[in-house]
Specification:
Elements: H1 6-19, H2 32-39, H3 43-55, E1 59-62, E2 68-71, H4 76-90, H5 94-115, H6 118-131, H7 138-155, H8 159-175, H9 184-203, H10 206-227
Antiparallel strand pairs: 1-2
Helix pairs in contact: 1-3, 4-8, 5-7, 5-8, 5-9, 5-10, 6-7, 6-9, 7-8, 7-9, 9-10
């Protein structure tokens, strides 16, 4: 029988209290000394429990006179961090990334058509305007491409989807960084596809946005697989 560590037990208890709203976002947890007194655990155990919560993105530890452990509710950044670790740790195949994009991005586009704001449309237009400049270097094209796809996710106003896409962004960049693949024809095709999807989102046409994004990411995936010889996703550490 495996006995859980005291720090894990305390971290689990504090985590549940945070998620139940007992400690609202922005408020401070009881001071370390008070937690030691309340739990009858050692200071080392309490610090280890707080470190677990910090890694999970549930608290921010600040030092100094007005420091302490301050609660923050998990958001898209927590999803992105976990998914990034999964991609790097499991050495996922390139096909896994492409299939995930085909599953997620059409849904993002459909929701973006329903919930987009004028500011969302402005971001999409700006990213795609950069993509339409055939004279920019490959690095700027790739970053503008990622920026546009992230903007579609952000326009969905769904934190889970945005978190997943944020995590995938570096992998998308890495998997398409191929000068033999990203030629002038690919750039032009990408710009036009993005424009038609943006237009559907602008008009609030969820079905068209979903359909056009499905066609775009599927076609892009097929083209990448034909050229890209790598089978694993390689992402540099931030």
């Amino acid at each position: 029988m495996q006995v859980p560590k005291a720090s894990d037990v305390l971290a689990n208890d504090l985590r549940e209290r945070i998620l139940r709203g007992e400690f609202p976002s922005g408020t401070a947890l009881p001071p370390e000394r008070e937690l030691v007194t309340q739990t009858q655990m050692s200071r080392t155990t309490v610090r280890e429990a707080l470190r677990i919560l910090e890694v999970q993105g549930l608290i921010v530890i600040k030092t100094g006179r007005s420091g302490g452990a301050f609660v923050q509710q998990p958001g898209g950044a927590a999803v992105a961090s976990s998914a990034t670790l999964l991609i790097r740790g499991q050495q996922l195949r390139l096909i896994d990334l492409l299939e995930t994009r085909e599953a997620i991005e059409p849904a993002c586009a459909g929701l973006a058509a329903k919930y987009r704001t004028d500011d969302d449309i402005a971001v999409l237009d700006a990213a795609n305007a950069t993509l339409g400049d055939l004279d920019i270097p490959l690095e700027r094209f790739l970053q503008a491409n990622v920026d546009w796809h992230l903007a579609v996710a952000a326009a969905s106003h769904n934190e889970l989807l945005t978190g997943f896409m944020t995590a995938l962004s570096k992998a998308i960049y890495s998997s398409t960084e191929n000068t033999a693949f990203v030629d002038e024809e690919v750039r032009t095709t990408t710009y036009r596809a993005h424009k038609t999807i943006t237009d559907a989102i602008r008009l609030g046409d969820s079905a068209a946005a979903t359909r056009r994004m499905t066609k775009h990411v599927h076609g892009y995936a097929e083209a990448v697989v034909q050229v890209e010889k790598r089978t694993e996703i390689e992402i540099e550490e931030s």
